[in-house]
Amino acid sequence: MVQMELMEEFDPAIPVTLPHENVYLIQVGYKLFRFSGASLLSDSPSYFTNFFTNPQNAEKVLYIDRNPQVFQKIFSHLQGYHIDVDDAHEYVYLWLDSYYFGLRRLQKLLDSEFTFACIGNKSFKIPKQLLARTNNYPNYFLINFDSLLSDNRKIIQSKSMIRPPPQRPPMASTRSSDLFADLLEALKGNDSIVKDDQHRQLLLKECRYYRFLELEQRLLKHDLVNNPFTKEQEIILNLLDLQQRGVSSRSKGIHDEHALRYTRPYMIKEKERSLIVQVNLEAGSTCKLSINRDAHLISFICTGKLANQFHSVFGSFAKDLLLAHQMEVHGQGTDKFVIFCGLSNATTNLNGQELKNDWFFDWFKHPEEPLLKKRKASEDCHSEDELAEVPLTKSLWRVLVRGDRCRLHAVSLVGYSNQAAFNKSITML
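Predicted structure:
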């Protein structure tokens, strides 16, 4: 966590190593600056006071080959004014000069208030208070600046240079300045800057680049639900947005079943909530229900990226959650994840129609089931007599754990039993 140095309480007392009323001349480039002794001593000891306390130099003009526009800010600081830095380049120039001249109070002032960076073609002034006491630190900017300034400090000290080395501010020229401006608004608490899902994904990508870990979690698409039946607050998150470190179980043994809980990582004072996982069909993956019509058992099956994410997030909570490797028709292999699931009380939309709560019982075989009904069930799904499969495009699940055993229970399902039904969901551009 960033350790923000509190600005020292202003001390009006000024040392008397130089006469306060005397005027001392410093020529910076083409401009002559006149300082009172009191001004020079307001941030001392320094390069200036060390020079003028030598009796032989008291009447001399100190010549410094630096930028007078940058030095104007130092002049104002020594006169007791608060200075405002305009952009990232000026900040670096001013910080290097403040260190080179030994102006410790100015260094602390510059270190405590803002950090600067050039994003795209624009300079940004970033209040350090936005990042203080959060898990958005360490981040791209502060690590970069700390390293940059530390390296320059060592160079100046070790080589006794006559001037600070040339340096530019942290730059991310390939990133979007508009997106970064949105991130700053979000850091201030304004989450309404998210325009749509595509914009959200771009912001999340930028969060990862700059290592704004807490902000990334806050911007993830989610919903909070107050369940009146369990009297708990539940959080809905996409499977691909989950991290294993945030998952926890309250189950005490094989006879004690509870839904897994989730705490979004990196978020300060984040509340633990009951987890509902949303699974969206991804390119290169499959996602389906497998109904064993003879055994009256239902499994949830997914492959590819979804399978790996399921195992990565939940694999440590049950010994039976394993990945299998299967060969596809085209000869390439893929990971496959299978887990038992329950469907009672779930909302199910199949082929654009909402089904009754116990619809899956109609798909089970019964000894007295007529042949005509069996044929109809086979036609309405991918059926191999004993097994019927229902491809899913979206689904919501609670992950239930009993000791070292795990299963899913559906909250909501959207699927299609055949290509013709799925085609109806496809709209023209």
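Summary: Residues 221-364+386-428 form one domain.
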